[in-house]
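Appendix B. Raw example, untouched.
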Amino acid sequence: MLKTIKNALKTPEIRKKILFTLLLLVIFRLGCYITIPGVDMVTLESTMDVYSNSVTGMINMISGGAFSRLSIFAMSITPYITASIVVQLLSMIIPALERLTKEGGESGRRKIDRITKIITLVLALVEGLGIYLAYRTSGIFVDDTVLTGAVIVISLVAGTSLLMWLGDKITSKGIGNGISMLIFAGIVSSFPSAVIAVTELVMPEGQFSTVGLLTAIGVVIGILVLITGVVFVQLAERRIPVQYSKKVVGRRMVGAQNTHIPIKPAMASVMPIIFASSFMTFPAMIIQLFVNDIEAQSGFLRVLYNISIATSAGSVGWQYVLISAIIYLLLIVGFTYFYTYATFQPAEVANNIKQNGGFIPGIRAGKPTADYLSSVLSKVVLFGGLFLAAIAILPMLTSIAGINSAFGGTSILIVVGVAIELSQQLQSQLVMRHYKGFLE
């Protein structure tokens, strides 16, 4: 990785792309500190401290601390992610969108991108209005007039729109996927506070603690093991061999080819965790909108609220954490199957192989090939789903023992995934520009 970065910096064109990406990420981080108009900072700080262990804490982590400051980037890029998921799901249901996605080419991609951005603005408007209504009664705003509410909502929507633009520019003129890089920068910005939290385990209140030292060593070892596991699963793949017979293309004979279909356990990446966490935290968000003092109440709503926030909070009872972990596990595995089969369709792949004169050794073309691919995919996806669930649930289980990690397995999964993608893109661009040198 370090050698790849060193070689990339020696190439003028790639160096310009890296510097351009860093410049836009700096703009993103500066925007995280620009608070929207009409906010009482003293009241805001005390209010966010109260909700730091709820669903607000997870949103704040993704936004790089922007949500706790109610900055113009408080909603981060989450409306765009949600809109992308909605468009992907709609393309599976609506035939016109499906044709646009598969057969539209560059024009179709632009139309899909335009539809995604329109849905993003609608979702950002709804989410901005929800944030204003949720925190209006807490006194963090200077006043609750219609004009103040309009300024706050417009500021939040404008911040999300600016992040969409930054993401597009990073993708087109910089390095890596723009949206992934913004999420990456937001999570990485919390690493210094995580290091400080681990240091405080060793030196609580300025005094050395042997138990704290052992706990800190265990946390560091756990993080290293987790990173190793994520890298292994991200790069792992099951290769299904495919052979193509000789055929005539134009006026020439194309020889037989041997290739393979790579099936990755982490084909769905972090999307099942995003789906599952959104599903889990949705009840807490709705309850917070309509019940102001839910923390001080009891009954069914409080139980539902505790189960909902247990995925991101360590202050609830162990019984809520266990119930939430089981539901979270089932949701992640279920969404992993759903998302993988939505993006990789065995019947369609088998049909393409058959049309191109190919076959899997020992398997007949057509339906037997589709059944075989489906069987292999289900086993590989089960492993990937259980791995994703283990990553997401491990910090929840450690919180029962009183060990609250500053950043969880989901953050590590996103950071490592983006880092691997970035490294591969740098290597591919270096190969294109120094092809001869790499061969030698």
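End of appendix B.
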